[in-house]
Specification:
There is one protein chain. This protein has about 130 residues and is of the alpha+beta class. The chain has a four-stranded antiparallel β-sheet with strand order 1-2-3-4. Strand 3 and strand 4 form a beta hairpin. The protein starts with a helix and ends with a helix. About 15% of the residues are buried.
Length: about 130
């Protein structure tokens, strides 16, 4: 089944696979080796498995320019938030510190950090941008 069909937006039902089904394999694109990717997870205690905030970024470069950028934030919505439109704005730009900061700012503007922890919402918004810029 497609990963797009696997997720559902209600925040209660985690996926649409039945109890009897198990994931036995994943097919990665043949050009996956050309990806540069990072995943960062913030949690209050290491003993907790779930994140208070998590961010993922993957990109392909072509001659120092972003050829394809994918961004995902977790713990900002009921399911991971794919930011395809935001990421597409940076395709073709050079990979510089300024571009990375602009991506972090764009993600921070789009994210709505959940307030399930004992931290001010504003501080978590700042952490969102920080995670994307590292």
């Amino acid at each position: 089944m497609s990963d797009v069909n696997w997720r559902i937006l209600d925040g209660i039902k985690r996926n649409v696979k039945s109890r009897e089904e198990i994931l036995v394999s994943m097919d990665l694109p043949t050009d996956a080796r050309g990806l540069r990717a990072s995943y960062q997870k913030f949690r209050v205690r290491e003993a907790w498995d779930f994140p208070e905030l998590a961010v993922a970024a993957a990109m392909r470069l072509d001659a120092g320019r972003i050829a394809d950028l994918r961004l995902v934030a977790n713990a900002v919505a009921s399911i991971p938030l794919w930011m395809d439109e935001t990421a597409a704005k940076f395709n073709g730009r050079p990979l510089t510190d300024e571009t990375i900061d602009a991506v972090a700012d764009a993600i921070t503007a789009r994210a709505s950090v959940a307030t399930s922890i004992n931290r001010p919402r504003r501080s978590m918004m700042l952490v969102t941008g920080h995670f994307f810029s590292h």
